[in-house]
Amino acid sequence: MRTSGPPVLELRNVRVSYGAAPAVSDVSLDVAAGALVVVVGPNGAGKTTLINAIAGVHRIDTGELSMDGRSLRQVAPYRFCEHGIALVPEGRRLFTTLSVRENLELGSYRGAARARRAQSLAEICTLFPVLEAKLEAPAGTLSGGQQQMLAIGRALMSRPQLLLLDEPSMGLAPLLVDQIMDAVVALRRDAGTTVLLVEQNAVAALSIADRGYVIETGRMGHAGTGAELLRDPAVREAYLGL
Ligand code: ATP
Questions:
Q1: What is the mean pLDDT of residues 188-198?
Q2: How far is the CA of 49 from the centre of ligand 1 (A)?
Q3: In this structure, what are the phi and psi dihedrals at residue 196, rounded to the nearest 5 degrees?
Q4: Residue of 25, 38, 39, 47 to test ligand 1 pocket, by largest number of atoms within 8 Å of CB
Q5: What tens digit of pLDDT does each residue of 62-119 get?
């Protein structure tokens, strides 16, 4: 497990608000190179707000957000992908009438990623063989689990250094949740992709995490390895329903 590499992503005392109302307050976290880090928390805790801020979708009000030691505070939202960040958004946001192949290709519109489009496509088909069989099918005809694989594949087409996943288990049956979590483990293991995952399904997410954080009402609480948090009686009772 690589949990001690240099930090790729660093957040220090970050606050994100909607108007005057803060949704995330004083959040600090590190994601080491090659690590799989998860943030778990209940509905409305601020997980989507946090991950969207890291993807550049929301501006942070105060604090610091940096990739590879370079601040992103002055970077325009549409330029975050040039810093190696790719988001798999909540609800997948696929283009359902376009084919699987077209959805994937949309993930590689930037020059460097476009030049390696064929290679990326082949790698994603290896990671998700079911997509290869359906490349010409409209994305809207895929099952929920397949659509989640496609959304992850589309993000990977940009060849990100840091992959952000917002609740990939949402709306999926337990068996499919396991498949998606296995795929996340595989892409970290095989491609060395650094992953930050936010999830309401805390057991599934912490089970694969190198490091986990618990967020509640916009603030970070417990932190530790995934195994430590799964064992912690306070976490088990309050957040895992165990
Ligand atoms: P979920 O699991 O439901 O996605 P979450 O942990 O991702 O929850 P957020 O969606 O980030 O939580 O919401 C955090 C807080 O910010 C909540 O109180 C929510 O009501 C509020 N919020 C989210 N989006 C907006 C918005 N567009 N305008 C105002 N408040 C918002």
A1: 90
A2: 6
A3: -120, 120
A4: 47
A5: 999 999 989 999 888 888 888 899 999 988 889 889 999 999 999 887 777 877 888 8
pLDDT bucket at 188, cuts 50 / 70 / 90: confident
Structure tokens at 75: 């970077």
Beta bridge partners of 146: none
Taking each helix axis from N to C end, the angle separating 144-156 and 117-127, rounded to the nearest 10 degrees, works out to: 150
- pLDDT the model gives residue 162: 95
Phi, psi torsion values for 136, nearest 5 degrees: -95, 0
**How far, in Å, CA of 194 to CA of 167, rounded?**
17
State the Cα–Cα distance between residues 236 and 224, nearest whole angstrom: 13
Q: Name the residue at shortest CA distance from atom 18 of ligand 1.
A: 44
Other Cβ atoms closer than 10 A to 48: 19
190-215 burial code (b ≥16 CB/10 A, e <16): eeebbbbbbbbbbebbbbbbbbbbbb
Q: What is the pLDDT of residue 163?
A: 96
Dihedrals phi, psi of 116, to nearest 5 degrees: -110, 25
For residue 159, the CA-to-ligand 1 centroid distance in Å is 29
Question: Which residue ranges have their beta carbon within 6 Å of ligand 1?
Answer: 18, 23, 41, 43-49, 90, 200
pTM given for the model: 0.92
- Residue 22 to residue 189: CA distance in whole angstroms: 36
Mean pLDDT, the chain, integer: 90
C-alpha 120: how far from chain center: 18
For atom 29 of ligand 1, the residue with the nearest CA is 18
